[in-house]
Amino acid sequence: MVSRTLALALFSASISHAAETVLGVYMFHRHGDRTAKQTPPANLTDLGYTEVYHSGQYYRSRYVASDASLKISGLNSDIVLQSQIAVSAPSDTVLQNSAQGFLQGLYPAVGAQLGNETLANGSSVQAPLNGYQLIPIALTPSGGGSEDSSWLQSASGCYNSITSSNNYFTSADYQSLFKSTSGFYDSLTPVINRTFNASQINYKNAYTIFDLINVAEIHNSSIHAFDNILTNDTLFQIRTLADHHEFNLAYNVSEPARAIAGATVAAQAVQYLNNTITANNNFSGPRLGIQFGAYNSFQSFFGLANLTAASEDFYGVPDYASVMIWELFTNTTLPSSGLPPQDDLYVRFLFNNGTSATTTVPQVYPLFGGNAVDLKWTDFVTGMNKFAVGTTQQWCQTCGNITGTCAQFASTPSSSSSSSHSSGNSNGISTAVGGVIGAMVTLAVILGAEALLLLLFGLRVRKKIELP
To answer: pTM for the complete prediction?
Structure first.
């Protein structure tokens, strides 16, 4: 439950929007509804397509349209200007198709009036598909095929992260839950024994068991034959156990490498917003960054940014089509050119859990375990730098990888920031001069580090597990 102090802060933030100017936005978006991971290949469903399309429509009304409620300053409203937007996703059909569906809602077809041009000979050409707008989706180099894999962590390619996640399976928490829930999972056998054998029906497969049942609850009416087994309490228990399982695979306070996916997302958000600042005199500069990725990136960022202090909901896996958002804004009048001084630049973090973007709005949450929801740019950078991993060398040293791209760093002594990373202290991007991250940040290896075991649905979990 959100505290009274936080509720007042959220209220204050909501009434101040009228005086704000949004300068740039970075978003991390989960895919829409899909088929079950345990019955590959996973595909985006019509429902999932609809979810991400509606999400795109909502964020158009929030940031893009000429009458948007929080119009991003200088962003083209109708015809997309490619240099103002950056979209990426792993090489994965569910995630790429989700990104494409989202963009159709964000920048819809412009119609015959705008979707045409006159040639030198006086003839005119109308764009196909009623002016359908083509927006490139960059492929991130890792995370490919993640939605077809039940063990997603391997998609990160980060050795230490995979090892750290595996450590959960030898922990006291895991061993205790594995034993205490054995009877509970055995009771599900009639429901899932056509997909899982007896040795797989246990807490180790908490997520894929939930995922299979959840997909059936949405798409397969025959699941109601098991209503006597799948009561509301049982369904909640399946989900809660899966949430707990996945959070522990995604984050551990004493093992920073486990949360590499969230650490790289943090670096990307800072880098993109910094590029918005440094290119402020260029109308065609970056304004809106969007990345589609897997849920473990959400969960590991939730842990790293201590969002669990704001709400216990952050211990769970986000629903399909959930979005994390970082808004860069100012409360001062924009000068005739450029941006206001950095002391007048702020960032807030928002999260929208699930598919109801057309009926609910993203909620503001304080980062880093504090109460402030509007952070000065320099404070935001400082907080993110404590865990962000934003260069190839940092990624290689954090992950312990020594081959391929990382070979050049294998014999390089760790820098102070990289050394402190392994000890759990301040790490990630080096301190920005004047609050600015240099444009030299390299994410070639890690832009798509969104992985961590299995995939889920739902952000409703309690710190304390209710066991049968």
So the answer is: 0.83
